[in-house]
Design a protein that fits this description.
heterodimer; A: alpha+beta; Uridine Diphospho-n-acetylenolpyruvylglucosamine Reductase, domain 3; Enolase-like, domain 1; 2 domains; 5-stranded antiparallel sheet; 4-stranded antiparallel sheet; globular; B: alpha+beta; Ubiquitin-like (UB roll); DNA polymerase, domain 1; 5-stranded mixed sheet
Chain lengths: 263, 161
């Protein structure tokens, strides 16, 4: 990889200032960015590590019951500390990558990257979570804007993610076994005001809500409720791991599994 | 170049590194601790697993500068104080948990991290924990068996090595 300057600020304000410089790039756990830099697909002049900022670490519960996760919290910490409050979210975190990756990779890093096959975007969109940055709060429905594209401005930092806790939820991932990314992953969450269904891994536009399934499941929360519903293959990802048609089919299969497993 | 300081296997270690210097490069090239291997360099294979502040990480996908002030443990720091193999290492030897040995440092570090979190893992839990460690010789069977034995489980009923 090309060389760069490395800084590790201790406060969000210092990190934001460092990211204000030309050629600066935020570094979370580095589990995607460092491999990308090794391939010389990215060559920032300065890496600003966000892992030395105590106020961006850890899990807490807000007064309204929402689970708040610091932007620099590793997946392994979410898996362990969220399990009692929001098991579906903890379960998702506990199956990202492998144990060593989960000890480094962060929720904010995953969301800022918005890989179309990453797990976390489906939980954030499926929970109607709020992405909190150093300057504003962004609703999940506004945050994801296509493959590797988000509402974040240049240098904006995800400081926290707030998840309202559903009555029931489940994430079901059909794993691509070499990468352990989702070939297709579906996050289903049932709230008092309706059901949300978010699909990752499938669409060329990145994570999306399957609104027909949401309507059917809001009326009748059972796997049978989505019998006959299909997602068009057009616009799905087709690659050597699975065709567009295969992924479109998996969306239905994984949604049913998620509804059946929701707890 | 910038100065980086950390504790490696209980001893203070420091050196001048570039921003891009990986932790595994610092360990191997600055400290000459070549037990930590580089297999794939793409965070797939796990040959470079070390412990940073007690957690298993892939040293090929962490910058040396990110380990500033950290407690790092490598395979060189795993043996008992008298130099004899520790429980996990001895179990790998006893149960033929290695052939060529290239993946073994990473396997031992991952196994030790697992046993620290979960002292009595099931076979399924062991196989799941080793998802990020690739071995091209053994077929994993004897590695799993060694880790079960290191946890104090009776492995005599498991198929012969």
């Amino acid at each position: 990889m090309y060389n760069f300057d490395f800084v590790r600020p201790k406060t969000i304000a210092d990190a934001a200032a460092a990211l204000g410089h030309e050629g600066a790039q935020a570094l979370g756990g580095g589990q995607t960015l460092l491999p990308t830099m090794k391939q010389r697909l990215a060559s920032p002049e300065t890496l600003v590590s966000l892992t030395g900022i105590p106020e961006m670490q850890g899990v807490c519960k807000a007064d309204d019951g929402a689970i708040c996760i610091g932007g620099a919290t590793p997946h392994a910490v979410v898996a362990a500390e969220v399990a009692a409050h929001y098991p579906a979210l903890a379960g998702l975190a506990s199956h990202i990558g492998d144990p060593a990756v989960r000890n480094r990779g962060t929720i904010g890093g995953s969301l800022a990257n918005n890989d179309p096959s990453a797990c976390y975007p489906s939980a954030v969109l499926g929970s109607g979570a709020t992405v909190v940055t150093n300057t504003r709060q962004i609703a999940a429905d506004d945050y994801f804007q296509g493959m590797f594209t988000t509402a974040l401005h240049e240098g904006e930092i995800i400081t926290e993610v707030r998840f309202p806790v559903p009555e029931k939820a489940s994430y079901q991932k059909f794993e691509q076994p070499a990468s352990r990314f989702a070939l297709v992953g579906v996050f289903v969450a049932k709230y008092a005001d309706g059901v949300r269904v978010a699909v990752t891994g499938a669409s060329e536009e990145g994570v999306f809500r399957w609104t027909e399934a949401e309507e059917a499941l809001s009326a009748n929360f059972s796997a049978d409720a989505i019998n006959g519903l299909t997602v068009p293959a057009d616009g799905m990802i087709g690659d050597l791991h699975g065709s567009k048609e295969y992924r479109a089919h998996l969306v239905g299969v994984m949604t049913k599994r998620a509804v059946a497993a929701a707890a | 170049m910038a100065q980086v300081s950390m504790t490696v296997n209980g001893k203070a270690a420091s050196g001048d590194v570039e921003g891009r210097t990986l932790l595994v490069q610092f360990l191997r090239e600055n400290l000459h601790l070549t037990g930590t291997h580089v297999g794939c360099d793409t965070s797939q294979c796990g040959a470079c697993v070390v412990h940073v502040n007690g957690k298993a990480v892939k040293a090929c996908t962490m910058l040396a500068a990110e380990a500033e002030g950290a407690e790092v443990r490598t395979i060189e720091g795993m043996a008992n104080a008298d130099g004899s193999l520790n429980t996990v290492q001895q179990a790998f030897q006893d149960h033929h948990g290695l052939q060529c040995g290239f993946c073994t440092p990473g396997m031992v570090m991952s196994a030790s991290a697992l046993l620290a979190e979960n002292p009595n893992p099931t076979e399924t839990e062991i196989r799941a924990y080793l998802e990020g460690n690739i071995c091209r010789c053994t077929g994993y069977h004897n590695i799993v068996k060694a880790i079960m034995a290191a946890a104090g489980q009776d492995v005599s009923k498991i198929a012969a090595e």
